[in-house]
Amino acid sequence: MKAAVRGLYAVTPDIIDTAELKAKVEAALAGGASVVQYRNKAAGADLRAAQARALQALCRAKGVPLLINDHLQLAAEIDAPGLHLGNDDASLAEARALLGPEKLLGASCYNRIDSAIAAIQAGADYVAFGSFFPSTVKPGAVHAPASLLREAKHRLEVPVVAIGGITLDNAAQLINAGADAVAVISALFSAPDIRVAAERFTRLFSSAPDL
């Protein structure tokens, strides 16, 4: 059975030191992260493979899915539970054909409902919208309004993930607007105490309304 996409969706930062990366992800998992996406734009192929395998072991021990960002062949090579794709990556249909029906596939849809509908038709299990707030990771990202989440929840039948500049101060408004999960990089992995930050993000979902 595929994992549910809900709650804190932890997206890894660009860290070359694998031991440091593992320690940060372990803290996020201890705090309640329900999905981890391995994303490292600074790593070469060999380091990506080594880090992905290391994180897969951590996540498997916690029963949390590790999704690979962008790299279809890497996801297939390590038999990752899933893959997340953007506009410039492999097609969802190609990913589904290679990985099979049981893997969790997600798609970045930015600020477009039509892209989300197409992604779902192509095999996406969840869709992500954003950036909802200014992001230091992607400063030039397109802006998505919170109203998009409300529309998505009424029109789509898959989980909806919000991403982009999300912090403990602004996450609740996105959750209340309909986000099933919030994808967080900096506000989680740059926090003074990653476990505590993860716990606080996770608690925000306990009082979320049913839409």
Report on this model:
The chain is built from nine helices and eight strands. It has an eight-stranded parallel β-barrel with strand order 1-2-3-4-5-6-7-8, surrounded by eight helices. Strand 5, helix 5 and strand 6 form a beta-alpha-beta unit. It has helices at 18-30, 45-62, 72-78, 92-99, 113-121, 147-155, 171-177, 186-189, 194-203, and strands at 7-11, 35-38, 66-69, 82-85, 104-110, 126-129, 160-163, 181-184. The chain has one domain: TIM Barrel. The chain is 40% helix and 17% strand. The protein is globular, with a radius of gyration of 16 Å. The mean pLDDT is 95. With 211 residues, it is an alpha/beta fold. It starts with 6 loop residues before the first strand and ends in an 8-residue tail after the last helix.
